[in-house]
Amino acid sequence: MPNKASHLDGYNKGFFGTSGNSSELTQLDAGDVIFTSFGAIGAGAGQNDPWTKTYVNGAQFAPVAVATPAAPTGWGAVGYGLVDGVPTWVALTNSTTSTGGIMISNDGKTWTAKNLPSSPGGAWVSITFGHGLFVAVAATNATTTGIATSPDGVNWTFRTTTAPGGNWQSVTYGFVGTQSLFMAVAATTSTTAGIATSPDGITWTFQTSTAPGGNWSSVTYGAPGGTGTFVLTALGVSTTASIAKSTNGTSFTFATITAPLTTGLVASAYGSNQGLFVAVAANVGTTAGVFYYSADGATWVNSAIGTAPAQAWNALAYGLGTFYALSGGTGPVQTLALSTDGINWTYKIIPTGAAAYKAIACGDNKSGLVVMVANSTSTSAAAAYSLIGPSLLVEFSGGIAAEGQPDLYLTSNQQGYATDVTRFY
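User: That's the sequence. What structure does it adopt?
Assistant: Structure tokens below.
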């Protein structure tokens, strides 16, 4: 039997199914998931039971048991990284506690509480991973307790910076040429104390920019056309000072938005498959001023949407071909919008616990998950995960069949294509 890795490129891919026909996929293990490019599937057992779960584009979330944060405020940020090749999720509490203020998971399902060496200056609001390091920022302008780093999500060190002009809001990781660069923004319109960069997450330098039309709210990184670009958003409603871009990390150019903003932009993300930046405003409207997209960070187009969220949008993430926008909400209703092109969006109502999910993050093809955390102290509904993929995911639960015997058959009333096989656990 082949030595199976977490991501099985080139294995068991191929066309299958026309009306009344079937094709077999052999030697699948429990926990393997088939990524497919079609919307209808049937399954017939070979030697073992076939499928147990079906998920479409990360839209079905399963709440999981988590640790109770030490302070009664819930969770505020979540991020993902590969630690020595192992998928690692890190959730940070929405408080200033040091004891039990971190949760760690390698599968998005089982979480373990960890401690910080000391208390942050404010609630954690953002976390990123790059250069072999998690970097997190807290909502504070303190010089010694606002930014922390960790190589594994367990052991953390606070870093000293010059005081920002407002509380830290967002952090991301990217490149200038071949050089690594972290960038963080603070909730301020200061021209000299709102944007900070670091080549290693340890030593930080403030950069100078023109004043934004409102406090900085988010920063993301992408490389459209191979050009590394940082995009920053602000909370103001200015059409000329709400989005800025930088390709060198030191100079920043504002973009002009033709569609009117009715509220400030709160979150941004980059889709590598689409080559698009997407930004979202804290709005419940359905037309102008909600979603924007750009192929270069300079020219932005407004996306009209057809459904209003339960509450204003507050988070945005991208992973494995899909953008995920998360609205606010008060249990039991919260809206999740999904887009595979960054332009057209579909909507899912997701259940919440006592409090709404506040942060969302996507893994890579090794984790195969999107994870949300809630501003809740619930031990049963403060985190949730969903499988993600290009179209339809079906999970195989059977064991390994006898050598040379098929585990299952895939059948379909339309021709399909098995695009990938990935092992999640």
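Residues 14-57+391-423 form one domain.
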